[in-house]
Design goal:
This protein is of the alpha/beta class. It contains five helices and six strands; from the N terminus they run H-E-E-H-E-E-H-E-E-H-H. Helix 4 runs antiparallel to helix 5.
């Protein structure tokens, strides 16, 4: 973990972050998709009070997926993202007791900005 990242995490250690769900998303030029970095970060975030969702999103080969036309999502990424957002919505509903969290995550997964 880099020093700037650790410093940023330490600055987030406030009461309002306690129990808040967080999704971990990584992308790399290499084949790992950043999985080792995510797995190193997960316990640190949990220790300071965040609730990382069980699954994370990793996008390997990011350089090959970007170009003049923008980002070309690999097959299955939209479904994987929807699953992770559903898990986060469940954590939000548990944490806040708001039934609208599931609808919000579904709206995000569908691409809505409202």
């Amino acid at each position: 973990m880099t020093a700037p990242l650790k410093n940023a995490i330490d600055l987030l250690y406030y009461q309002e972050w306690q129990g808040k769900p967080v999704v971990l998303l990584s992308c790399t030029a290499g084949p790992s998709g950043g999985v080792p970095a995510v797995e190193a970060l997960r316990p640190v975030l949990a220790r300071i009070g965040f609730r990382p969702v069980e699954r994370s999103i990793s996008v390997p080969g990011f350089a090959e997926l970007t170009g003049p036309g923008g980002f070309r999502a690999p097959a299955g990424l939209a479904a994987e993202l929807a699953d992770v957002l559903d898990e986060m919505a469940n954590l939000l509903a548990d944490a806040d007791g708001h039934a609208c969290a599931c609808a919000c995550a579904q709206s995000l997964a569908a691409g809505s900005t409202t």
